[in-house]
Amino acid sequence: NAAAKTVILKFPADNAAKGISGKIMFFRPSDASQDLIVPIELSTEGHQLVSASRLSKGMWRMKIFWNAAETEYYNEEILVIE
Question: 64: which of 17, 21, 59, 75 fits an S-S bond (Cβ 3.0–4.6 Å)?
Fold first, then answer.
C-alpha cells in the first residue's frame, strides 16, 4: 500500500486459523547491510503489515519462511519500493 507506506502480506485464511509462524526476510541485493528480518505476527484476518518506512527505495527480494499445521512453506517475491 504505497499511500500508507505499508507492505501487506495476506496468508491463506484456512492456514491462518491453524496458527502460522515463521519469518519474513527483506533482502537488498545491492546492499546486504540493509537486510531486514521480521517475525510473522498475523492479524486475526491472517494479514501481516510491515512498515515500508524501514525499507529504502529500490528493489528488494522478499523471502517468506512459514509453518502451518506442521507443514513448512517458502515464498519469494520481488518488491520495489518507490
Answer: 75
Residue 66 CA to residue 78 CA, distance in Å, equals: 18
Contact criterion met (CB below 8 Å) for 50 and 6: yes
Global confidence as pTM: 0.80
Which CA distances in Å does 9 have to 13, 25, 33, 44? 12, 13, 23, 13
Ranked by mean pLDDT, the top range of 14-18, 44-48, 68-72 is: 68-72
In the chain the first and final C-alpha atoms are separated, in Å, by 11
Q: What are phi and psi of 72, to 5 degrees?
A: -95, 140
The mean pLDDT value for 39-64 works out to: 86
Cell representation of residue 10: 495476506
